[in-house]
Design brief:
Blueprint (H helix, E strand, L loop, with lengths): L10 H4 L7 H30 L6 H35 L8 H22 L1
Amino acid sequence: MPTTTDRRRPRRVYGVGTDPDARFSLANERTFLAWVRTSIALLAAGVALEALELPVHAVLRWCASILLVLLGVLAAAWAWVAWARVERAVRTGAPLPPPVAGAVVSVGVGVAGLLLLVGLLVA
């Protein structure tokens, strides 16, 4: 059980269960950081689509850009939520929660790619 001198935050994560083997917490942190890097890449791609002069239909390029930026914001938010859910599960010995964000980001990137493909064809 956490001691009263435990200052780690958030309490809803560290205030339950017991400290797991550090390897599990570090693996969870690496996954969190990978999602943050993915978020940065999606945000950069969305901004680059609008910042560069590309031979893509303007409306479709804008839609793809907005979609990528929204996916970047979603990936950053989900990274934190998923980290907390997994850390709590590891600390309490509960089953790991199912992954969700990967499917959403994959479909979103696919849709953005299709928008750009159509935009290239009609430009």
